[in-house]
């Protein structure tokens, strides 16, 4: 057995049973101790480094002093106590030259001086070739050669040489011009050596302030700038090193300068591109397109085709499967543990990759056994089953020459529990180790997103990149297949106390969301460098060189990797001779050079080290970034987050409060600022000139697809739109106070949180709600945790974050106007898979859910709960998917919720299917009716692009041209009543949108005409096959559309232009439906959704024309201007 094997064995034994001699620790006793030499700093950043530690039995030797354990030692720090045994072992048996110093910083009283020894003559600051080191340890100078440096290879130091004419610059760990390097050796043949007291400076020497200090610390700004471009140090793998870049499809949806498309990719900077993500269908256990509109739709951006087109430039393009969100629940475990399901998946994956032209597959299940890092969630069988899955994929991919890779965890616990490393190494082309997110807001204290090495203030010895990579290699991975992950983002925190702002400072939650990424606790590098460049931030470089920098301002704190740290990591990847580096993600680097250094400064740094990309003379120090583009800092005065104000002198400009400071912006050409958005100039109070009038144009907000009860998914993205007319939009005014009589009819309005992500005229906020229009508001959505089977906030930043829109609070505030506000659970997307079925069929899970729901509703101040599981037994309309037991189990769940809610005076309702088949299989109608306060029947989406023929979204009555006489509102409502529903509890659903189609033949444009797919996406809703009413009426106003009214008056109108066709409800059919509600004496009407009516009056009639029509019929709202006409 090798020495390394013995050390590993001893490590595991020590971690299990503890270190002998410290189980029964007594109070530390004071003793007279011999004076010890002054200890130096951490090995990376020492100014005066001590001699290296030498192992001596159960202690270690430092220079002339031998240290042995103090048997009476007791650690005071509880985190130190937790990790004492492993730290003791590391300091004594495993790389003692590296870890002894770290241990003494953590536990200064554990070792005591035992004896004074003679100093060995051979002892020197730099260990000679062949001495012990840790793979991945930072590069260091060769003490005998100015042009040389040493790298750690297989645990031993090995000499390397800079290219001719260059010297090793220890401060920046690069080969540099001799004029930039201080070297005491005159030439490489000189016998003169550096003095033993001189240490290599492998990182900035800027001191880190104490945690209680608020003094700004300026990092070093003396980065060398050679007049030419020295090559990076030579490496046998430099020409073969991979630089693997993740491309994210949702970055296409971001606003303005943050929008990232395939055109933004620099073809010289990536050897491979991984497209994130495809997802796993939980019912069929096969790959599926995640966002069909953006990924594959010919009427959308068609990102699959655009990214795979980069293959012609020699880049390999793989599709990544999974990701964090898609790894929720047990669907991957179910698949890999079933040989038949694995076979079905593989057969489908081959078709998928061939169909879309990818070069292979990247597996990103997070993680086997440890689902989303919960190692109690999955079965132990996940580990061998995942290995078998990879092996079978390898066998299928080999004949096709495809690549097979995986993104894997950096956590030792997850690695141990989830990965058969030797097996995976054999079958994967590379293993992308996600060496980031070691620390984040979930820790409740500050920490670095991606430590390079062990830090003296760290309490876990293995939470760093060096340890992780070596652990994978020691576990059996081929080093040449290991890829180091590098983050192009930072983890951010909100400090509990702004004056306590160092590492491990208590944090009360996530940092404020970035201006563009809009995710609390997360900032893109381009957001970080821009904030720092604007001033007011204190940047702290780690004196130990183990971490990248962190920065703070007020109570905001962020850790990140800068150019210097990315260079260090890349040099380590090179020195370790691993496979290369991967980045998360392309859209997060400063790809537009907003910080004045260069485009892609981090990614180019990786390429300079690994692939000899040309050097740059630009100084990319984040502290010295100049302000080169807007937003510009207005002043140091504080402001309320996300508030706006007009510019003092420029009608087209405005200010937005970002991170407590005003930043300046400019409206698109031709528009002026109007209080909260860019608007037509003559609708604003500002006087100026403008020759060209364009609508409010904004780029997309970063919003993931959100659940939509219409049976589809809204992406939340927008593109620039230039209409052919210049019809002015009336200026919105405050809603008048209108007192309406209580007629007994309900008007129930759904509010969707993702509508706030839209931009320009499509953006919808709580302030846009007319309180007179709704008796009840239902907030969509909360979702069901697949692991806990309890309610959870869906979008924490938008819903509840105090630094975000805080929509829960703003919508529930409408209760003071007499409106009841409920939270809706579910929606179409959240109904995917089996989790709701698992919940309702398990009595103990139901009880846990009910208890949690009570706490949830109380905490956020709602008036009740609206259930939107689509649907019992018929999961997402597939009536073969669920068990028959869903039907009675759903009733039991509703009964138990009702029993918990009624004593509190809360409302309980449900959105239910209009389909006769689903009603028969999924609902015990007569049993459910007594427990619900109302039953909202979703009498819409009877027809859509899935039918391959045109049809109306929401017919009122059966139509002569429609074979299925059940597919209409009148039949559905009466069927629910016939089965036992109380008519006074039945609510008719009305759509504020249309279903759209692309015709096969523009000349065949009637009802039931053949359609080849969804219609073109709207300029604001950006979803193929779906148009908001305000998008439809605006099209009609523009002209060129033919509007057809139904001669049978069984349904609303449809309209067509060219090959585009859409059906919708207009004011006239909404009035007739409302009259039917009244005549049937049912409970009222509900709308999907507030943000889809013409709430800004884009079409020149009135605001909310459809919703007001409902209120005119059911609640005696004042009639409209008779000249208001949408025809």
UniProtKB/TrEMBL annotation:
Gene Ontology biological process terms, A to Z: carbohydrate metabolic process; chitin catabolic process
Domain GH18: 241-613, 745-1117
Annotated stretches, region: Disordered: 192-238
UniProt key word Calcium: no
Domain Chitin-binding type-2 residues, every copy: 130-185, 636-688
Annotated keywords: Chitin-binding, Disulfide bond, Glycosidase, Hydrolase, Signal
GO CC terms, sorted: extracellular region
InterPro entries attached to this UniProt entry: Chitin-bd_dom, Chitin-bd_dom_sf, Chitinase_II/V-like_cat, Chitinase_insertion_sf, GH, Glyco_hydro18_cat, Glyco_hydro_18_chit_AS, Glycosyl_Hydrlase_18
Molecular functions per Gene Ontology: chitin binding; chitinase activity
Signal sequence coordinates: 1-24
Matches recorded under Gene3D superfamilies: 3.10.50.10, Chitin binding domain, Glycosidases
Family: Belongs to the glycosyl hydrolase 18 family. Chitinase class II subfamily.
Stated name of the protein: Chitinase 3
Source organism (scientific name): Daphnia magna
């Amino acid at each position: 057995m090798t020495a390394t094997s013995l050390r590993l064995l001893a490590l595991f034994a020590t971690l299990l049973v503890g270190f002998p001699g410290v189980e029964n620790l007594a109070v530390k006793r004071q003793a007279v101790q011999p004076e010890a030499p002054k200890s130096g700093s951490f090995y990376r950043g020492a100014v005066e480094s001590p001699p290296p530690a030498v192992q001596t039995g159960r202690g270690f030797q430092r220079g002339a002093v031998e240290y042995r354990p103090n048997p009476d030692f007791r650690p005071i720090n509880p985190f130190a106590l937790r990790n004492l045994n492993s730290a003791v072992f590391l300091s004594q048996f495993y790389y003692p030259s590296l870890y002894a110093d770290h241990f003494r910083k953590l536990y200064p009283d554990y070792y005591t001086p035992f004896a004074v020894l003679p100093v060995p003559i051979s002892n020197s600051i730099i260990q000679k070739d062949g001495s012990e080191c840790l793979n991945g340890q930072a590069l260091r100078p060769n003490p005998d050669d100015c042009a040389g440096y040493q790298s750690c290879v297989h645990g031993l130091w090995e000499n390397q040489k800079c290219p001719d004419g260059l010297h090793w610059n220890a401060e920046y760990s690069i080969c540099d011009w001799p004029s930039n390097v201080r070297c005491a050796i005159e030439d490489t043949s000189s016998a003169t050596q550096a003095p033993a007291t001189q240490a290599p400076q492998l990182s900035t020497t800027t001191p880190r302030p104490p945690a209680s200090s608020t003094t700004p610390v300026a990092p070093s700004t003396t980065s060398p700038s050679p007049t030419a471009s020295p090559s990076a140090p030579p490496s046998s793998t430099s020409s073969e090193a991979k630089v693997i870049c993740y491309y994210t499809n949702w970055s296409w949806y971001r606003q303005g300068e943050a929008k990232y498309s395939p055109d933004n990719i620099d073809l010289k900077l990536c050897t491979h591109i991984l497209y994130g993500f495809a997802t796993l269908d939980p019912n069929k256990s096969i790959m599926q397109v995640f966002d069909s509109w953006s990924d594959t739709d010919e009427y959308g951006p068609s990102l699959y085709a655009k990214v795979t087109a980069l293959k012609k430039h020699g880049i390999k393009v793989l599709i990544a499967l999974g990701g964090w969100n898609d790894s929720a629940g047990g669907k991957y475990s179910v698949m890999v543990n079933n040989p038949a399901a694995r076979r079905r998946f593989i057969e489908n994956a081959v078709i998928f990759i061939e169909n879309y032209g990818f070069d292979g597959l990247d597996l990103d299940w997070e993680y086997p056994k440890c689902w989303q890092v919960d190692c109690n969630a999955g079965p132990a069988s996940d580990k061998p089953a995942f290995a078998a899955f990879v092996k079978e994929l390898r066998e299928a991919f080999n004949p096709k020459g495809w690549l097979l890779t995986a993104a894997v965890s950096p956590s030792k616990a997850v690695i141990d529990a989830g990965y058969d490393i030797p097996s995976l190494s054999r079958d994967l082309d590379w293993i992308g180790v996600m060496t980031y997110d070691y620390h984040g807001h979930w820790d409740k204290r500050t920490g670095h997103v991606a430590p390079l090495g062990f830090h003296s203030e760290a309490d876990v010895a293995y939470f760093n990149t060096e340890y992780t990579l070596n652990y994978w290699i020691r576990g059996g991975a081929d080093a040449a297949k290991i890829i180091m992950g590098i983050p192009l983002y930072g983890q951010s925190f909100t400090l509990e106390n702004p004056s306590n702002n160092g590492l491990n400072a208590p944090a009360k939650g996530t940092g404020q969301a970035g201006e563009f990424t809009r995710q609390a606790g997360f900032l893109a590098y381009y957001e970080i460098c821009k904030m720092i460049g604007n001033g007011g931030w204190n940047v702290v470089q780690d004196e130990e060189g183990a971490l990248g920098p962190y920065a703070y301002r007020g109570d905001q704190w962020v850790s990140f990797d800068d150019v210097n740290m990315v260079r260090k990591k890349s040099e380590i990847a090179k020195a370790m001779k691993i496979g290369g580096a991967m980045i998360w993600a392309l859209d997060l680097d400063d790809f537009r050079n907003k910080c004045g250094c260069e485009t892609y400064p981090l990614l180019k740094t990786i390429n300079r080290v690994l692939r000899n990309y040309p050097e740059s003379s630009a100084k990319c120090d984040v502290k010295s970034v100049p302000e080169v583009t807007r937003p510009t800092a207005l002043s140091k005065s504080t402001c309320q987050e996300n508030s706006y104000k007009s510019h003092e002198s420029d009608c087209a400009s405005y200010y937005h409060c970002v991170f407590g400071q005003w930043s300046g912006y400019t409206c698109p050409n031709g528009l002026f600022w109007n209080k909260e958005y860019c608007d037509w100039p003559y609708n604003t109070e500002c006087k100026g000139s403008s020759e060209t009038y364009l609508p409010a144009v904004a780029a997309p907000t970063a919003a993931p697809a959100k659940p939509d009860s219409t049976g589809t998914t809204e992406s939340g993205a927008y593109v620039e739109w230039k209409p052919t007319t210049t019809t002015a939009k009336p200026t919105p005014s405050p809603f008048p106070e209108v007192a309406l009589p209580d007629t007994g009819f309900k008007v129930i309005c759904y509010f969707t949180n993702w509508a706030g992500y839209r931009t320009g005229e499509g953006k919808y906020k709580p302030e846009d709600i007319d309180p007179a229009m709704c008796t009840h508001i239902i907030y969509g959505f909360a979702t069901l945790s697949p692991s806990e089977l309890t309610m959870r906030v869906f979008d924490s930043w938008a819903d509840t974050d105090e630094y975000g829109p805080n929509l829960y609070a703003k919508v529930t505030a409408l209760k003071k106007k007499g409106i009841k506000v409920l939270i809706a659970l579910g929606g179409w997307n959240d109904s995917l898979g089996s989790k709701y079925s698992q919940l309702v069929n398990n009595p103990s899970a139901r009880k846990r859910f009910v208890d949690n729901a009570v706490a949830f509703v109380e905490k956020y101040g709602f008036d009740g709960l609206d259930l939107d599981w689509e649907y019992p037994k018929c999961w997402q309309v597939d009536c073969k998917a669920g068990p028959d037991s869903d039907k009675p189990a759903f009733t039991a769940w509703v009964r138990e919720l009702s029993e918990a809610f009624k004593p509190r005076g809360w409302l309980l309702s449900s959105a239910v299917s209009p389909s006769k088949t689903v009603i028969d299989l999924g609902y015990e109608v007569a049993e459910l009716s007594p427990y619900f306060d109302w039953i909202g029947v979703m009498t819409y989406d009877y027809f859509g692009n899935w039918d391959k023929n045109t049809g109306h979204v929401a017919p009122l009555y059966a139509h002569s041209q429609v074979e299925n006489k059940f597919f209409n509102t009148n039949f559905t409502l009466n069927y629910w009543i016939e089965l036992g529903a109380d008519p006074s509890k039945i609510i008719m659903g009305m759509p504020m949108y249309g279903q759209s189609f692309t015709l096969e033949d523009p000349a065949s444009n009637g009802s039931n005409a053949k359609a080849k797919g969804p219609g073109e996406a709207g300029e604001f809703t950006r979803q193929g096959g779906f148009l908001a009413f305000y998008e439809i009426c605006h099209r009609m106003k523009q002209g060129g559309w033919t509007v057809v009214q139904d001669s049978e008056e069984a349904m609303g109108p449809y309209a067509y232009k060219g090959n585009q066709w859409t059906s919708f409800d207009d004011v006239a059919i909404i009035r007739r439906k409302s009259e039917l509600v009244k005549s049937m004496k049912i409970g009222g009407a509900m709308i999907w959704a507030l943000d889809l009516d013409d709430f800004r009056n884009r079409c020149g009639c009135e605001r909310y024309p459809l919703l007001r029509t409902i209120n005119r019929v059911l609640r005696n709202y004042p009639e409209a201007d008779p000249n208001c006409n949408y025809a």
